[in-house]
Every structure is written in C-alpha cells, then in structure tokens.
Amino acid sequence: MYEIRRHIMKIQQIRSATNKISYGGKTFLLDPWLVDQYGLGCFQGLPGNQYQPVDPVKAQIPMPLFPLPQPAETILAGVDAYIVTHLHPDHIDINLQKGTLGDGLDHDLPVFAQNEEDAQALMQSGFTDVRVLTKEGVKFFDVTLHKTPALHGTIRMSSEACGVIFQSVNEKTLYVAGDTIWYEGVQQTLQQYQPDVIMLNACAAELLSYGRLIMNDEDVDCVHQTLPEAHLYLTHFDNVAHASITRREMRGRMTGRGIMKYDIPEDGEVVTY
Questions:
Q1: Over pLDDT 70: what percentage of the chain?
Q2: What CA–CA distance (Å, rounded) separates 177 from 29?
C-alpha cells in the first residue's frame, strides 16, 4: 500500500497584499512589497502620479502605514519563486530614482509575471529567470500555476492585473484572486476550478478616476455565495492610504453577513489549511 503524501498549505500574511505561500512543497512570495514603513511616500508626492484618492486627505498619508512584521531577510529566506500579479508600487518595490523593480529581491530566482510587458520590465530590472503565467498553466516542479482574469476598477481599469490558481496532485486548490472586484471573470474562475481556499484582496481601496479597485464585503459575500464550502483568506488590509475598510471593520461585516469560514490574519501571522 502506498501512502498518499500531502503537503500542508501555509500562508503567512506579510503586509498588505504580500503573502508567503507554502504550497506543493515549494514556497512562493506573492507581490513582494518590502519597502520600509512610509518608504513609498504619499500619493501627493509621487512624481507623475496619475492616481488620486477619493478623499484628498488620504493623498497626504505616507505608505506603507506599518513596518514589516519581520526583517526582510527573514521573509525572503526559503523562497523558491516570486509571483508578481501586476506592477503597481504596492505589489513590488519600485526604485523611482533608478526606474527599477524589486531591488531587494534575489534576481536569480524565478519570477512569474502576468504578461510579456511586465516580464520585459522585470528583465530590464535584472531578473534572469522571468516566466509568464498562462491560462493553460505553467509548471513549477509539482505545482501548476494558472493565470486567471481580474478587473482592477469599477469605473475603468487602473491597470491590467491577474489572479492565480495553484494546483498540485493530492493538494487542495488555492485561488489567489489578486487585485479585482467581483465580476463574471471571478465567478467563472470559481465555477471552473472549485477552489478549496480563496485569497481575496478586500480593503475596498478606491481612486477618483477608477472607482473601487478591489473587493469590499459585498463582493466577498458574492464569492461566499458562489462557493459556500470554500475557506476565505482576506488580505490587503491596513497599509495603503486609499483603503476604505480595515481588518476590524471587515470582521464585523463578515459577522453581519453570516460568513464564518474566513481568516483575516494580522501581519506576520501564519494560517494553515
């Protein structure tokens, strides 16, 4: 008799949308925004910035709002690959003086990008092993990563973005929805892959010309109603100035909506599935 060996899926909330995912025997760092507290600056101070918060006061708040929960060296230890869902400055560090991406990362590790345009930008920043995600799936050892669609704005898209499905034999399926609102692309992904664990960026960040950029509690409820047995992992809280829902508020809204199968980890916290 052969024993079926399963790896434990572990997700560590790092900060904002940055998460360290252990899946299928490999460790992925998702959207590695590792800049020091306040290191990005504020919307008002970003050169050539086209994005403005709905509330003008928020344009003066420096980001990220909190420091990393651990030294960057600790966060980067044991990482096998990076996944960058899109190139917004709260998803990968951007050196505005040099025009480079991810200066603090190991440039020889594999990095998965959403499309050729992002891949070219990463290669121009010195990354030597850049791979493009596809709908059909890209293999990384025993893990298959599928690119999924995302709609990053209710008025118009603030940029292209994507989600990722993680699959491996005898493992639970993980769906990282990425920076998206609820729309038919997310619904179709849920119906197609039937994920066991769903990671949702859900601080309801909003910008003046683009509307709400990612999910709010109503969107989260739509996901829950579509797959009520799935476990929800809610992230991207409390570190960007244009957010409109905090962790504490979201917990209250989940209770109000009767949603019980969810986690909203604090920075540094590890959740296992």
A1: 98
A2: 15
